[in-house]
Specification:
InterPro entries: AhpD-like. This protein has 51 residues and is mainly α. It has 4 helices and no strands.
Amino acid sequence: MATVKLWSDAEAETDPRIGAVFADIQATRGSDFINNFWRGLANDPALLERT
């Protein structure tokens, strides 16, 4: 079974592209929670931004 790395909040803050998308998700949803779907997509920042 394949697995992907799930980005933590601390790791996301080190990459401006991922941090910006995570901040947008939090603002849009009005929640601090980022689910694992988005954390997995963070392995490909360009794809995360497009989604």
